[in-house]
Amino acid sequence: MERIIHKYGGSSVATPEHIKRIADRLESRHRNGDEVVAVVSAMGSRTDELYALAERITNSPEPREMDMLLSTGEMVTSTLLSMALHELGVEAVSLTGAQAGIRTTAVFGRARIADIQTERLEKELNRGRVVIVAGFQGMTEDADVTTFGRGGSDTTAVALAAALDADRCEIFTDVAGIYTADPRVCPKARPLQEIGYEEMLEMATTGARVMHARAVEIGEQYGVAIRVASSFDETAQGTLIHGDLTMEQGNKVRGIAHQNHIAKVTVRGVPDRPGIAAHLFEPLATAGVSVDTIVQNASVEKLTDMTFTVAPADLDRALQVVQSAENEIGPAEVVSDPNLGTVSIVGTGMASAPGFAARMFRTLYENKVNIDMISTSDIRITCVVASEQVDEAVRSLHDAFDLDRED
Amino acid sequence: MERIIHKYGGSSVATPEHIKRIADRLESRHRNGDEVVAVVSAMGSRTDELYALAERITNSPEPREMDMLLSTGEMVTSTLLSMALHELGVEAVSLTGAQAGIRTTAVFGRARIADIQTERLEKELNRGRVVIVAGFQGMTEDADVTTFGRGGSDTTAVALAAALDADRCEIFTDVAGIYTADPRVCPKARPLQEIGYEEMLEMATTGARVMHARAVEIGEQYGVAIRVASSFDETAQGTLIHGDLTMEQGNKVRGIAHQNHIAKVTVRGVPDRPGIAAHLFEPLATAGVSVDTIVQNASVEKLTDMTFTVAPADLDRALQVVQSAENEIGPAEVVSDPNLGTVSIVGTGMASAPGFAARMFRTLYENKVNIDMISTSDIRITCVVASEQVDEAVRSLHDAFDLDRED
Q1: ipTM of this predicted complex?
Q2: Model pTM?
Q3: Number of CB pairs, chain A paired with chain B, less than 8 A apart
Q4: B55: nearest CA in chain A?
Q5: What structural domains and CATH numbers belong to chain B?
């Protein structure tokens, strides 16, 4: 007997017919004697429909109300899946995030899990029931409903796997696993058999949006091995995200991540003295602008240039904040470019092995892709390039690092 | 300053534009300094859509899951109305039935309110917020979501009015109040200025489905005066349901109620001995068949006839139950008629004033309406007639009892 957590995303539960197919799969697991918890997202485009409803009321919905509104999408799926299991003769029960004991911070729209009180979950599993948990949501101390942000059902699944000490955590999605690059951009891309947590995080936060980054972080923190596989092809293995990569796997480029659309803001001639960065980035954070890469150039005559990237949708807000920060940082020239993208090579051990960066830069040069900015981490090298050159950059790097070959 | 409870039904909140109009009304009450609680139903046909979703999964949805599914409809409306108030600069908060402290029995689909824990409600009102409560739902001791059955938002509103000791409870609907008869059937029907609780109950349970009967019962029990008015015409007075009718109002026919479709089952030649009725009606109750009128004829040679009415949708089930009860009651001839309806005259004091029944029967006779069954209560006389004659019966009785004249 195993205790397993399944997670099914929106496209896997898009219609009642999809939901019945998921019920069939859960029924066979349950018949094996396994303890089964399934976490579900909202059906298909329901979350978008709920956003659209709110937009017809207001342009700035109260986050607390938005969270309660959005949480209903996952509730609907969970009840329908539970009904489908009953129809197959399987005892099942749907639980909201709150009923599943998921206690969160009171930061609406991007709440973090504080604690999972597993009494109800354990009780239902002990009664032999399949437990369906509405994903992406929890409850504050004051019994208000919170959500975790888009993709948050992954977080629910991995957190439950940790709290319930599950044997397996399987994320079923509409792709066959974690690819070496986005297959829509790069036809030679193929699913990886395995990937490390940190590599997955870099892939996730730099464009490969198969997994919610926070889910991967929780997986790493609690040592939960996560399998990502297709919900439409039961035979495919998918990709195992875990921490125990074999040694020879640890020293190569594992994948190419990319973002097609980012914007860049450069503040020129900023005085090079302590506190300047804080004066710039604190108000950006307060205004809710999420800053990605930050680069500060070497100082020339006590003046420096500061460059950072943001989502294009946040660009206007970012420019306003920078302008109103001139009181603190003095007059500065502000330049922006909304038509950029990023391409990254990701792999453990790149920092300790020379030549990865050089090969990346040469490949881009040979393909006439100009590099606008560079940033690196231990396991990632990212180049900011023109938006329209991102796809070509991904394909050429996929070739250059032989990613079409099996692991 | 008054503390007021408003309730808005599905047609009053059918679209985001409707919801904004309701927000305008609540905003002006709030600006007056009143404490405002608004109870809302699901938007337009959302409840029907949720039923349809469940039907695509199973013909016999688990009641617990159905309740959680249906509860999302009211949650959506409550969050949107709260957002619309925020948009107008009014502090507001939406609460699920559970968050509003509504504790119920664990009878899914038709839970009854056990208790309302008003701490959260009082706290929000004290903070000056408009409180929006998702109608028709509550929570069991085990934190499971329950619903009260169709129309249950009325029950939420009246129960909150009682628990919060509100000054006013106003039910806004798509009609101008409680009519002397159904205006779709009887063009001369007009809204009543007032009606007693018991009269309203008879009107509600015998066909005038403007108010949920249980809401009226709670109103009577706790002495909550309930105003039913149009949500589309703010100038109209509507109808006040209360217990303090002036003396001369208490001795007349107040309205004509009707049901277009009922079915009748007659069991002929039943042995006339103790326990027979129990052997028949207990299994019907167990099978979930709601029996309306029951008539037992005088006994002839130790055999009697037993007749009862049910909803046409329950007729097949009722016949099955009756047939399988033959073990207990002996062989009997069972006759049924699915094409019947009822027409009732309703008014306090009819029992103590002779002549109402006679005038009713004569009116039906003069209009060639044959009476199939008769049943009476202190404040109601009901005739079962052919389904296709119901409308004509309503119109002729409305004329005969001068109901088109002002109160």
Answers
A1: 0.80
A2: 0.82
A3: 111
A4: A16
A5: 3-174 (3.40.1160.10), 256-400 (3.30.2130.10)
